[in-house]
Design brief:
about 0% strand, about 75% helix, MetI-like fold, elongated
């Protein structure tokens, strides 16, 4: 029973999240249609999750909000993983002033709390999904750079890497053939947990009004709009709040299982 709850349910929820995010544009949804006679109506036969303060279907807006969180997390994690891995790998492998400069740059970014720096950047750039991706990527690459640098420092003195250098292999070939495959497992696990962090960060920025703008839907913006009606229409907050909780918990559980699977010590 525990294995089913920890393994099957998170995978099913994440699969549903991805499918709805990709297929939302093909569904006959009308998330922005205002129905004044349905304002703050609770869940019922007409709408499974009820209506919001403008009479819009909450379920349809949640599906569109799932697409928003999925796109932001996919773009931010992909760009952060690419930039951080390239910088951390190159600096650790070359060493010298390259490595010292990269470490100094990472330390500068770590001197600021990540979410506060993202809020400041989003405020400077202005609201919008593109600016949210830029702001979160700016603060998100640091963890991947530190991890990849630590991995390269521990791998570049191994025998197979030194043998490749002695045979005259180029630096790019050594990195691509001998270092990146051994670094893939911890980077994948880090990226998995990064998805959960980005989903929460995007919801937080949208809650503050720095994310997607009306009438576009976001789980964070839906929670913000529902806080004014908690006593009369709690479903406005509960629906997106439970969805956000379920997705983040599922990603973290999947990341834990993936870490255990990829850990050679536990496999043995």
């Amino acid at each position: 029973m525990r294995r089913w709850l920890v393994g099957t349910v998170p995978v099913a929820l994440l699969a549903l999240w991805v499918v709805l995010s990709i297929g939302a544009q093909y569904l006959p949804l009308q998330p922005d249609v205002i129905q004044l006679e349905q304002i703050l109506e609770p869940p019922g036969a007409g709408a499974v999750l009820g209506y919001d303060d403008l009479g819009r279907d909450i379920l349809e807006r949640m599906i569109v909000g799932a697409r928003t969180s999925f796109l932001v997390s996919a773009w931010v994690v992909s760009l952060s993983l690419l930039l951080g891995t390239l910088l951390g790998t190159a600096s650790a492998y070359h060493g010298g002033w390259w490595d010292r400069s990269a470490v100094f740059l990472v330390d500068v970014f770590l001197a600021f709390p990540g979410i506060l720096l993202a809020i400041a950047l989003a405020g400077l750039l202005g609201p919008g999904i593109d600016n949210v991706v830029i702001a979160l990527t700016t603060v998100g690459w640091v963890g991947y750079a530190r991890l990849s640098r630590a991995q390269v420092l521990s791998l570049k003195h191994r025998e197979h890497v030194q043998a490749a250098e002695a045979l005259g292999s180029s630096k790019w070939r050594i990195i691509r053939k001998h270092l990146l495959p051994l670094m893939a497992a911890p980077l994948i696990v880090e990226a998995t947990f990064g998805i959960a962090a980005v989903v929460i960060a995007e919801a937080g920025l949208s809650f503050l009004g720095l994310g997607v703008q009306p009438p576009e839907a976001s789980w964070g913006a839906m929670i913000r709009d529902g806080t004014r009606y908690m006593l009369v229409a709690p479903h406005m907050v509960l629906a997106p709040g439970v969805a956000l909780f379920a997705i983040v918990l599922s990603v973290n559980l999947l990341g834990d299982r993936l870490r255990d699977k990829l850990d050679i010590r536990l496999a043995r």
